[in-house]
Amino acid sequence: MKFDSFFLKRNTFLLLLSSSASFFGTNMQFIAISWFILEKTDNPLYISLLVSVGMIPGLLMSPIAGAVVDRSNKKVLAVKMDFIRAILVLILVIICLIDLPEKLFITLTLVNSLLITLCGNFYFPSISGILKEIFDQHELMRLISINSSLSQIFSALGAAFAGVLLAFFHVSTVLLIDALTFIISGVCLLFLNYSPKIKNNNGKINFSIFEDVLQGLKYSLKDTYITFLFLVGLIPSATIYIINSTLSVYTKEHLNMGSFAYGILDSSYAIGAIVVGITLAFIKKTFNQFTTIFVGYTILIVGFLVIGLSKFLILSALGFAFIGFSLMLINPNRRSLLLSYIKEEYVGRVSSLNWMFYSITGPILGILSTLLLKSTSSNLIFIILGALSLISLIALMINVKQHNQKNNVKLGA
């Protein structure tokens, strides 16, 4: 079989290599610094602080970051963020090598992690903008599909590689490799063939950043199609948080099995997602993207119901594989439709709002599912999710029909 030339194109190859290096390094860093904090302080509370300090300020900064991205050369900004993250990781190496008092060590580490997260808030919308400006809709869908699969693969590899290195080397060695991954990512972006479509206004329009943020909010909320695409991804984006919150209880209490079964179920989801993502990326035929999302939702419903009704490991594993399969049909197509639809001058702000929406709703729904475990069985939660997904599918079909009639266009073809 001849290798698809799309993936040998300069921009495609460089973006995938950059993204893979970034995901690999990000997960290496989290595993390494989390383990070192626990080893140095013997206090798991600091791990929770590490997660929180990266998430909460990032959510607050995300709308502003999107506005800055829309004012900037996205390639230059993404490259700067990669190199700044590399420098911050090198500073983290120094922090870990110096024998600091515990409180000072924790403070410096948390501040460093916060700054790295904030760089990510500028980096990811910049990448979305680059994708929007370089690729057409079909290429965009294929690239997002393969990138989603590679993010799963290299995130897992980064975490595993960090774990192996930590068994033999000091954490500073892991962090040095991590810094190198950000440098590789930045260098790849430097060689992109990219010319920004949105030019700098040279001071002719003196909107403040906060006015830009408000404009982005108004643009997103007033456009019912954008709001609709946000809502389409609500259950799929929350699914991973719900699985993480309930899988251990489901394995132990519903299937009456242990850690081995837990690992099989967890890997079944990942395998389903990776296989479908790579398969879609290599399919050259153009499919109607809404039809693909409909199919994805149908498979998602089947997956939830299989998990909820099954008492057998094999069937449950198949259900989780279906979920991974379905999410790779829904999420890349939904994101491709969104990026293709929004105007270039708003891509940073809408991408940031998109990320913020799911970063808030996903964990909240995950927490709610954990609270439900106190009053109901874990398998019933998956049956409820199947019912909610069915309602979402019906609403999706109605909204797509109404939108197509209103605009008299065929979307997603």
From TrEMBL:
It is found in: Cell membrane. One of its GO terms (molecular function) is transmembrane transporter activity. It comes from the Bacteria. PANTHER family: MACROLIDE-EFFLUX PROTEIN, MAJOR FACILITATOR SUPERFAMILY (MFS) PROFILE DOMAIN-CONTAINING PROTEIN. This is MFS transporter. Residues 1-404 form the Major facilitator superfamily (MFS) profile domain. Keywords: Cell membrane, Membrane, Transmembrane, Transmembrane helix, Transport. It is a multi-pass membrane protein. InterPro entries: MFS, MFS_dom, MFS_trans_sf. It comes from Melghiribacillus thermohalophilus. The chain crosses the membrane at residues 12-38, 44-69, 81-98, 104-124, 144-169, 175-194, 225-243, 263-283, 290-307, 313-332, 353-373, 379-400. Its main location: membrane. Gene3D superfamilies: MFS general substrate transporter like domains. GO terms for cellular component: plasma membrane. Coiled coil: none annotated. CDD domains: MFS_MefA_like.
